[in-house]
Amino acid sequence: MADIVLYGSPLSPFFRKAEFLLRTKGVAFDTENVPVLGMPDWYAALNPGRRIPTLRDRTIAEEGPPGTIPDSSAMCAFIDKKYLGPSFYPEDPYALGRALWFEEYADTDLAGVVGSGIFRPIMFPRFQGKESDLATAKATAAEKLPEKLAYLDGVLEAGPFLGGETLTIGDVAVASVFAQYALVAQLPEGFPHFRAFYERMAALPALAENLALCRKMLSKALPAPLELSA
User: Fold this and answer.
1) What phi, psi does 31 have (nearest 5°)?
2) Could you tell me which of 76, 24, 26, 27 has the C-alpha nearest to residue 206?
3) Measuring CA to CA, which of 80, 175, 200, 202 is 20 to 30 A from 212?
4) Is the pLDDT of residue 129 over 80?
5) CA atoms lying within 13 Å on the CB side of residue 158
6) Percent share of the chain, pLDDT over 70
7) Segment 120-131 mean pLDDT
8) Residues 116, 125: contact at Cβ < 8 Å?
9) Domain 93-218 has CATH 1.20.1050.10
10) Are 37 and 17 in contact (CB under 8 A)?
11) In angstroms, rounded to a whole number, what is the distance separating the alpha carbons of residues 7 and 35?
12) End-to-end CA distance of the chain
């Protein structure tokens, strides 16, 4: 039994972000599935916002709220501070601020478009045996996503990562959120710097393992990514 438990689902971009740090640092962890649809009441005691994921450190407590951290940004900072391995938080104050900004941008602006506007309309109906809301997904991909990707593409002209030459929590957050799009749709045309960035991130073992599992989980409901630009 590992010291760390992640409650949630690998399909969550925020679960994916925390998982990335744990895998990269070589930290053993257990997972306990908590579905987004039909979330159990007991989970509210651990996460008052009723969102996933939540992290538990069993060295602090094995049950109840003690030992838990219910926000992905907070748990990633905890993981980075507690465990050896590459740090995702720069020492330089400005670089740190920028890394945290991109994490926040991913978790709010980008997640709102990719998650709520594209992934959910495509997959949530399919999870219930219904047809995808392709009209909403296509409209979001055409009207809202380009602005987000254009911004990130411009930043990435300066280097392979959002902060330049060094991988930070901002890169992990952006790639983890955009993966929601890549799991259900073909990558959009244009944005060459961002596309190269995402493909580079998706090839890293810590993200590649999650994506392989997610594709397997989605394969029955969605055999192949959709073309949203048509």
Assistant:
1) -125, 145
2) 24
3) 80
4) yes
5) 9
6) 100
7) 93
8) no
9) yes
10) no
11) 9
12) 48
CA neighbor of 13 nearest in space, from 61, 68, 52, 55: 52
Q: List pLDDT tens digits, range 132-141.
A: 999 999 999 9
Which segments of the chain does DSSP mark as H helices, in order? Answer: 13-24, 72-82, 93-105, 111, 120-127, 134-143, 145-155, 169-184, 192-202, 205-218
- If pLDDT is split at 50, 70 and 90, which confidence band does 181 have? very high
Question: How far is residue 173 CA from its own chain's centroid?
Answer: 6
- Which CATH superfamily does the domain covering 4-82 fall into? Glutaredoxin (3.40.30.10)
Consecutive H or E run containing 31: strand 29-33
Gap between the Cα atoms of 89 and 61, Å rounded: 27
User: Contact 58/67 with Cβ under 8 angstroms?
Assistant: yes
SS3 68: strand
Predicted pLDDT of residue 229: 79
The tokens for 100 are 């945290």
User: Model pTM?
Assistant: 0.96
**pLDDT for the residue 230:** 57
Residue for token digits 């003690």? Answer: 66
What SS3 state is found at 54?
strand
What is the arithmetic mean of pLDDT over 164-180? 97
Least Cα distance to 197 among 170, 175, 164 occurs for 175
Q: What is the pLDDT of residues 3-34, one digit of tens each?
A: 999 999 999 999 999 999 999 999 999 999 99
